[in-house]
Amino acid sequence: MGVEPENTLRSFVRAERCGMDAIELDLHLSKDGALVVMHDADVDRTTDGSGPIAEKTLAELRELDAGGGERVPLFDEVLGAVGTPLQAEIKDVAAARALAETMIRHDLAGRVTVSSFHDEAVAEISALVPGVRTVLIASRWGEDIVRRAQTVRAGALALNIRRLTLETVEKAHGEGIEVIGWVVNTQGHLRLARALELDGATTDFPEIRRTGRFTA
What angle do CA 80, 65, 28 make, to 5 degrees? Predict the structure, then answer.
């Protein structure tokens, strides 16, 4: 989202061309049950429309400009547009079952990792999709964060790097749980991610991958 309209096909193609290891996107359900890609629950910030996604049909969402003439994409369209592994974040708990059905239908457990801030969404997708890799996300968390990941069978935690400590990383690693830092948009945060020996990091700027090789 730092260089292209976020959650659009154009942004995903750009990320793939930049050689990113994976592409993160966000999922909601439209009023008529379509699995659409957008970060917020409302369309106001990222399109020229207004109102909740859940109150709009797919046809209505398709009429919106998601930036630079891009349209709100379906998850299925992203699958066809790029071959890079995906991390699909469930923003709306109701989208978990629809995502599970899509993953099973297209045999996506090896290509799509599923993440969410919602413990119940992670638990549901784990129960519905055999072999799926899952990530529990948190911005603020307590001492029980590793236990929460274990409870919902998440193989990784994605945690706000501004609040992440070595103690949390070591505790997670001690239980065989990976740790991803977000959002790593500066060289300082990239150096921190490496110092903490994180398993991965998310960024809004693909070029940090290239420049970080020399300056971090």
Answer: 60
pTM attached to this predicted model: 0.95
Three-class SS state of 189: helix
3-state SS string for 118-171: CHHHHHHHHHHCCCCEEEEEECCCCCCHHHHHHHCCCCEEEEECCCCCHHHHHH
3-state secondary structure of 52: strand
In whole angstroms, give the CA distance from residue 78 to residue 85: 11
Q: Are strands 200-201 and 35-37 parallel, antiparallel or unpaired?
A: unpaired
What is the maximal distance between C-alpha atoms in the chain? 49
Report yes or no: 136 and 119 within 8 Å, Cβ to Cβ.
yes
Rounded Cα distance, 149 and 123, in Å: 9
pLDDT in tens, the chain (216 residues): 999 999 999 999 999 999 999 999 999 999 999 999 999 999 999 999 999 999 999 999 999 999 999 999 999 999 999 999 999 999 999 999 999 999 999 999 999 999 999 999 999 999 999 999 999 999 999 999 999 999 999 999 999 999 999 999 999 999 999 999 999 999 999 999 999 999 999 999 999 887 765 455
Q: Which token pair is 182?
A: 């977000």
The two structure tokens encoding residue 37: 């890609």
Whether residue 146 is preceded by a cis peptide bond, meaning omega within 30 degrees of 0, is no
Secondary structure (3-state) at 186: coil
